[in-house]
Amino acid sequence: MSQAYQYTQKLHPGSPFPDIQVTLPDGSTRPLAQANNDQRWQLVLVYRGRHCPLCTRYLNELEQFKDKLAAIRVDIVAVSGDSLAQLQSHSEQLDVSFELGYGLSLEQMKTLGLFISDPRSAHETDHPFAEPGLFVVNEAGNIQVTDISNNPFVRPDLTSLANGLAWIRDPDNNYPIRGMHR
């Protein structure tokens, strides 16, 4: 029996990061990633949602790297497809000071080239959700680093990520965007 497969379209390193607005808990919106005038980069973390204990742990661990990332001019924003109520409930388990967005749509997940899963049951969550994705967007608004996974068990090691970004950001290393061949 043959099975038809649908393939996700991946964002390529060096290409512009999509113009996606994310909603914050106060109801305001902001670009998911945007270059600014002080040469800052943006680390965009897409997480599965409140139902994922591995996401909770990863977000809390990422908070421990916030100062190191800020020192190399990398800001953090995290987003999921959860509702505002789910994010508010999840926030009780989180100890983070970086921005958290909610309501990432299926279309936005597809635009980001993320893997999308259906919940195993209503107990897990009430909507399809994105599997983990991480993007680092440089000051030009282009993708410098990307990592996506089809499950919650495979994510970048945060120590390696922070150290690697520090090395990349050091102008003496003149390190180019990697993975440019399509």
Explained architecture:
Residues 11-170 form the Thioredoxin domain. InterPro entries: AhpC/TSA, Thioredoxin-like_sf, Thioredoxin_domain. One of its GO terms (molecular function) is peroxidase activity. Keywords: Oxidoreductase, Peroxidase. It holds the Pfam family AhpC-TSA. This protein is of the alpha/beta class and 182 residues long. It has one domain: Glutaredoxin. 24% of the residues lie in helices and 20% in strands. The protein is built from 5 helices and 9 strands; from the N terminus they run βββααβαβαββββα. A 5-stranded mixed beta sheet has the order 5-4-3-8-9. The longest helix is centred in the last third of the chain and has 12 residues, at 158-169.
Structure summary:
This is Thioredoxin peroxidase. InterPro entries: AhpC/TSA (IPR000866), Thioredoxin-like_sf (IPR036249), Thioredoxin_domain (IPR013766). Helices cover 24% and strands 20% of the residues.
